[in-house]
Amino acid sequence: MQFGVTGAFGFDEFPQPAVLKHYTDAGCRVLQVYRNRTRPMAAREVLTIVRDLPLTIDSIHGHFGDDLDPSSEDEGLRRATVELYKSEADWCKQLGGGLVVVHPCPSNIAVGSVEKKYSQLRRSFDDLARAGEQIGVRFAFENMPPYHPIGHDVTRLVKEVAACGSDQVVFLLDTGHAHMMGSIGAAVRAAGTQLKYTHVHYNDGKNDTHRMPYNGNLPWDECRDALHDIGYDGVFLLEVFESPADLPKLLTADWTKRLHGILNRR
To answer: What is the pTM of this model?
Structure first.
């Protein structure tokens, strides 16, 4: 597996490239770009910030919010969301990346019919599959916490992604979100060969806090064994938002050794 990290850009609390330097010192070599939606940035600004770091940008986390829903029962909103993600794909390509992370739906929204939402999501899969072929990117749909009307059920989301039948629409497993739903090992195995990317973080099983692995009760050995049992060899990407001041005491030599033990199954 390749070791990666999410880089937050356009947020005062995460000054770059200083924050990313801590992660590259721990061995991260792949970067997913996540930027502040309220502060538009040109791709060249991000590339300038990271140019001296040993990181390869392979993806971006697409914008998300209550106004974006690829499974919306409102066809106008669904289409507008698809168009937004097409523009995200273009921005990703400018960075040299090839994957855009997408949320299947927002949190805590009113739903008329769950099955209608899945039907609409399938339409968005088809639309984005065509766009992905044209632009040269993949769209990775991630499992969500339990308060998202759809997307929280790993088995169902994997089934829907697989049924799309396109290499441009793939499944991303978020370990913290899966932990909020139950067994991380079961979630990994449910994804199986459909698993193409990861977001890795810890929480207490109730709140989506995006904390550093090995600082809580998520069973990382179980996660490690499941990943290796299914033959996953993609990116193991930290999606954590710890205080920069805490990073030196979190990213210790012992922590780094344990994390690389997941990558190499030790």
So the answer is: 0.97
